[in-house]
From TrEMBL:
It is found in: Cytoplasm. It comes from the Bacteria. One of its GO terms (molecular function) is ATP binding. GO terms for cellular component: cytoplasm. One of its GO terms (biological process) is 'de novo' CTP biosynthetic process. The gene is pyrH. The lineage of its organism: Bacteria, Bacillati, Bacillota, Clostridia, Lachnospirales. Catalyzes the reversible phosphorylation of UMP to UDP. Belongs to the UMP kinase family. This is Uridylate kinase.
Amino acid sequence: MKRVLLKLSGEALAGDKKTGFDEATCMGVARQVKQLVDDGIQVAVVTGGGNFWRGRTSETIDRVKADQIGMLATVMNCIYVSDIFRYAGMKTEVFTPFVCGAFTALFSKDAALAALEEGKVIFFAGGTGHPYFSTDTGAVLRAIEIEADAMLLAKAIDGIYDSDPKVNPSAKKYDEISIQEIIDKKLMAVDLTASIMCLENKMPMLVFGLNEENSIVETMTGTFSGTKVTV
Ligand code: UDP
C-alpha cells in the first residue's frame, strides 16, 4: 500500500477521558504516522467528532444545525491533531469542503494530491460538508477521490464483532469479513451509506483499535490483529 486514508474516531482521540483530547493518545498516533511517512507512505487523515458532539444525539435543536456543529467539531479535531503531527516533525495541511477563513484550505482533489506529493500528511475536516452524513461516509468518499489503496479505521474497539462486546461478553471478533456481509448482518461497524460506497467503489478497510500498542504501524506491516474488510 502506497497511499492510505486513516480514519480516527473522535471517541478514540479522547482516550479514557471520553470527551476532548487525550494528548498521549494523539502523540502515539503521530509517532506511528511519522514512521509510515518516513517509509514513503502517503497518509490522509479524517477525524470524527464524537469526542465533542454528535448531531443525531440532540433531541432539541434542528438536525441540520446539530450536524453543522458536528462538522465544526471535526474541524477542531483536525486542527488539533495536525498540530500534534507538526510537533512530531511532519508537514501537514487541513482541507475542508467549506470555507473556514484562513484556518484551513478548501478541498479539491488536485490540491490534496499536490500536498501528498510534497510529503505532507493531509487532513480532511468537516466531513462531506453536508448534514445527514457521518465522518465514516466522508472518509470513504475522500479515500475514493484520492484513489487511496485502503481505508484504515482506528476505533475505540479493536475490530468488528458479531455483537456488541460491551453488552455480550461472548461476542466473536471477525479476522476477515466482506463488506456485503457487514451490510447483510447489519453489523454497523461503519454506517450503511459508508458501507455501500465501499462496496460500489471497491475500497477495502482495515478496522482496528487505536488504543492497541503500535496498531497503525502493525496494520501496514502485516502483523495486524483487527478485522480485514474485503470488497
Ligand atoms: N457530520 C455531518 N456530515 C458529515 C460528517 C459529519 O453532519 O459529512 C456531523 C454529524 O452531526 C456527526 C458529527 O459530525 O454526528 C460527528 O461525526 P461522527 O459522528 O461521524 O464522528 P465519530 O463518531 O466518528 O467520532
